[in-house]
Amino acid sequence: MSNSDRLIGPFRQVVTLAGLPPAGPLKDEQILVIQEGGLLVREGRIAAAGTFDELKASHAGAAVETPPSGSIAFPGLIDAHTHICWAGSRAEDYALRVGGTSYLEIARRGGGIKSTVRQTRKASREELAALTSRRARRLLQDGVTTCEVKSGYGLTVEEELKMLRAIGDADREVPGDLIPTCLAAHIPPREDGEGPEEYLDRMAVELLPRVRREGLADRVDIFIEDTAFTAEQARPYLDAAARLGFRITVHADQFSTGGALLAAELGALSADHLERTDTASLKALAERGVTALALPGASLGLGEPYAPARRILDAGGALAVASDWNPGSAPMGDLLLQAAVLGAAEKLSMAETWAAVTVRAAAALGLTDRGSLEPGRLADFAVWQAEDWREVLWYQGSLKPAAVWKSGTRI
Ligand SMILES: [Zn+2]
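Above are the sequence and the zinc ion SMILES. Below is the predicted complex in structure-token form.
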């Protein structure tokens, strides 16, 4: 036993989410719930999870840290898809959209992603880092201990680098982990008469090698959609990214199909959105072990259908859920609320919903060191004060964590 051991507990329940299969349907009976539990923490990681009394007897020298009374511990939430590095407001867009103006018409009037690009380009690296940190801290209070963050509002070499550096600054500033992703391929900027292919070719040559050299990100994303890039345009760009050693993820099948099939073919980490995906694409994702990532926040923000989460699981797929927090389509940024709403709409078991925001979300980011409370994993967890673990989703996200720990330290 190490003299740095700490025993945290007792918790009313510890929900470990350990030992679950990586894909396919789950039943609530597969969830391991430890009554009157404790967590033994050593150097920021879980050394043991068990009943508090047994851990206390077997580790008598461990310092005891008492959590809020009557609390239930879950692994820290993992938000595997966000755009929280942005400046400015899109409230005007939102007012127009809920009033019935189409997305295309808003874009024609100078709104949409391009308005956030204009406002983000005006912000300094320091301002962007501060805005990103503030949003990451909000997520942390909600129990999100790991959060993916995309660039994509720069759309020039220097502006994309500025965003990724700001995300890195924010990661060093906040206790939670921020996982950066280069989304220079968000939309074609169509500036100076440059077409989408030329833009992607230039980014592959001028931007991606610098992102690698500076260690700013090891993930590349692209928006495959009629209004952004086609699958044919995406393929050579993603091939170039893979040759540079990037892991691939794709915005796919939000309004039209084709992106998910390419994600499956390339063996991407995840295919995200999938509101309009078809059965053949779902099967292809499942067969290739590509995580299908649903973004109910975008469905709520746009008034569009949800991704077919039930069908994803029944096809043997790995379902993860993320907030897609962004200033345009998904301004809410509340992961657990959105996962609970999706679960009700799509008939997901509580086990399926919890796995989708913890252990299966970790897999969507290629992370094997977090997402469940078992020996060797990071001691990232949040506690909710409730009588039973099922109450947390029953409150549909309105019950907030009473405390959050990152790498064994209470925040
Ligand atoms: Zn997105």
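The pocket of zinc ion is lined by residues 81, 83, 251, 324 (CB under 6 Å).
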